[in-house]
Design brief:
There is one protein chain. This protein is mostly helical. It has one domain. About 50% of the residues lie in helices and about 10% in strands. The protein has eight helices and six strands. It has a three-stranded antiparallel β-sheet. Strands 3-2-6 form a three-stranded antiparallel β-sheet.
Length: about 200
């Protein structure tokens, strides 16, 4: 898997802040990015930002994107300066856009996935989005373990499974053949990563 792309992560946060009218609740924006990533992985075989996802009490979280949203001390100077150019914190839970989205960092498929997430889920509140994310298999598989550990790294292949509840949005329909092919590609990427270490 490619390295985390802090520019794309910053611009994803900025994209949704502007869609929401310039400011957005941090929890809400992180859930919208999750839905965009789920769609993009299922359709195009990669997350938008190449982030690592963790299951947490309030649902799936893109770890490094969360650090950017929170202005975390884990950011290096370059990441922090870039993020501060586009985003600032309002109240404790609010993220505010400073300037227009730099769409040059995105591919057409990235924008398609962001638009999908906004059009499907952008009207939902933070609490509704949290409740909805708990219906997806990639979070559900870690539900019991979360009783003992506050965060658990999620398996990327779990994002390819459909929700058990029929009327829950799949975020791009996969045939069994599509799923098999994507799993093979993910395994191939793991092997390549291992060889390059």
């Amino acid at each position: 898997m490619e390295a985390f792309d802090y520019r794309k992560a910053t611009q994803c946060l900025n994209y949704f802040a502007l869609k929401a009218g310039k400011s957005i609740d941090k929890l809400r924006v992180l859930k919208l990015i999750y839905f965009a990533d789920r769609y993009h992985l299922r359709k195009y075989d990669r997350f938008i930002t190449n982030d690592i996802y963790f299951a947490m009490g309030l649902g799936p979280v893109a770890s490094s994107t969360k650090d950017i949203a929170e202005g975390s001390e884990f950011l290096d100077e370059t990441e922090s300066q870039y993020a501060n150019e586009y985003l600032r914190t309002g109240t404790q839970h609010e993220l505010i856009s400073n300037k227009l989205v730099d769409t040059d960092v995105f591919s057409e498929s990235d924008i398609e996935a962001l638009d999908f997430a906004w059009n499907k889920f952008g009207h939902l509140s933070s609490s509704d989005l949290v409740e909805l994310t708990h219906k997806y298999p990639e979070w559900n598989r870690n539900k019991q373990a979360l009783l003992l550990n506050p965060r658990i790294e999620m398996k990327i292949e779990d994002f390819l499974d459909d929700p058990a509840i029929e009327d829950v949005e799949k975020c791009f329909e996969l045939t069994s053949e599509d799923r098999k092919e994507l799993l093979e590609q993910l395994e191939e990427m793991r092997c390549i990563e291992y060889l390059w270490r």
